Structures are given as C-alpha cells and as structure tokens.
Sequence to fold (358 residues):
Amino acid sequence: MTPLNVARHRLTNQHIASTTFEKPSDVVRWLGAVQAQDYLGSLWAIGLRMQNATEEAIEQALAHRTIIRTWPMRGTLHFVAAADVRWMLELMTPRVVAGHTRRLQQQFDLDDAVLARSREVFVRALQGGKQLARNAMYQALEAAHISAAGQRGLHILWRLAQEGLLCFGAREGKQQTFVLLDEWAPNAKRLERDEALAELAQRYFTSHGPATVQDFMWWSGLVATEALAGLEMVKPHLVQEVIDGQTHWLSSLRPTATDASPTAYLLPAYDEYTVAYKDRSAVLNPVYAKRADSGYGISSPTIVIDGQVVGTWKRTLKKGSVVITPSPFTVLKKAEKHAFTLAARQYGAFLKLPAVLA
Fold:
C-alpha cells in the first residue's frame, strides 16, 4: 500500500469521500470522538461527513442531547456520542487529571478543598436542568467566595468536566453554556476497563485506519500498554498492512474509489483527517507541514484534493453570502480549481448561504 492509498482509505473510512450518515450522532459515534475546540469548525467537521447537513442541524443535535461537547481525551474539547461520554471520561481522563493536579495547586491554588466547594456550588446552581453561561458560572463561584479571576475559573470548569460533573449544554445566542452531565446525559453507559479499551481501539482503527499504534496513542492519550491491550483484543476484526516499515491497522482492504477528475474537500481546523494521527505525512507533504502559513496541517482550515492537503482556506461572512478565500501551496490546475469551487458550494449549502470565491 502506498501513501496515496493510505490517504484514499482514510477519506473513505472517515466518511469524507462517502457521506452516508444522516444524523450527527452517527458521525460522532463512528469516529469515536471529533475534536471540537474550534466550535464552528467542529460543526462543519461533522456536517461534511453527512448527507444534506446544515449547521443548524448539528446544533439541534447538541440541544437534543444526542451529542455531547466536553474534554474526554488529551485535555482537549471533543464531541462524543451521548451514550459514550461516561465510559470515555472514565477511561481517558484520570491520567490527564493526575498530570495537571500539581500545576493547578501551584499556579492557581486549586486544592481538593476548593474543588469540593466548587462542586457544591455548581450542583446547586445547575440542578433541575438549568444551563448557565461561563460568566454566570464564574459569578456563582465568586458569590461563594471562590475566586474565578484570571484563568482560575476556566481551570475549575475544565477540572470538573474532566471528572464528569459538568459538560457543555446548548448555546444561548452566541454564548456557550454549562450543565450537569448526569442530567444532560442520564443514559450514558459505563464499561469495564478492558471492554472500554477494546471499544475505543475498534472505533479508532475502523474509522481512522490505516493507522499505527503510535497514531492511536496520540489520538487517545493512552500509554503504550493500554493502546496495545486494546488493539490485541480487536485484532481479529482488523487487517494488518506494513507500509514503509510500519505496521498499520484498518478494518478492511476493500478498494477505494478513484475518480478520473480531482475531488476537493474543505476541512475545518483540527479535523480528524489531519489531527488524529501522530504521523501525517501520508496526507500532508512534510515540506508544507513546516510552513507557518499551513497551520502545520492542523490549526488552519485545509484544502484537500485527492487526499492531499494542498493549501488552506478561510471564510468571511458577508450579508447574504459567505466568501471563501483559498491559499493554495502551489498553483491549482484548472480541474482542481473546479473541484475547489464545488467544495466551496458544499460549505455554503451547510451554512444555507451562497458561497462566493475570493
């Protein structure tokens, strides 16, 4: 298998090239988790993997509690399916919490006593299905004589979400809100640790393969013994492929579609197609990855043509339209420009706005 084949398999397995899903929860469940610190970009990350998706439909899934936004892995915001949020937090957050405990104590004076009082404050403020914006959460802390100054309030929210007390609720206008996780996702299931490791490995290699154990470790934040244990339990359901001396795993070696004409996709920043792998060389030329204007293939929205990251793009909302500005790494050919235009129209349809190319 060549790097080009790797890219094509990932496009297919991540349902970028084969958008069969109809519900946001199906996308998130398939991928396991969708990185979501760039909120609007992460809505598109889900939408581009769906049929006839709109930004409004993804936000409705949040409001209807079928997908949850929280910090389940690597201390980073992700979307996860509501049914999965509890076992994912229990599997992946303890090491993150332990790794930050000393820093929170030293830099923000957040010890067990302060965190215990903060839990009580938030339970009283939110119980009964209430949703509060971040500033209101900070005000609740201050009213209880717990300082939220500087970054202290944010770290309290982060810490209590990691342990499963809080998660994000639906937006109120442009404001993000917080809710009690037990009330927001009461039917979230729990799994025994081995079962959770196997489930996470199965989801990752099925949806993100071909991928290595090192990729899985990067994505999940698991240590080598845990990642290998999860892989070992699901090996019978996976296919092994050695590429450039490294063992990759995926669910199937079925042939991927190859169109005669180029196909383009506009991916958001931090999309799973780029961020979910330690080694991104199969989809991003290392020469481009070093360029500051590339966002290192992660932190900027990317243009993907035939599986390869070939540039970045940005949007500007105008009255009645969205302007799409491309910044390709090299001059695009005529057919590639046409493919980009089609991809821009798809993004415009997601926003229910005509797309105008700058």
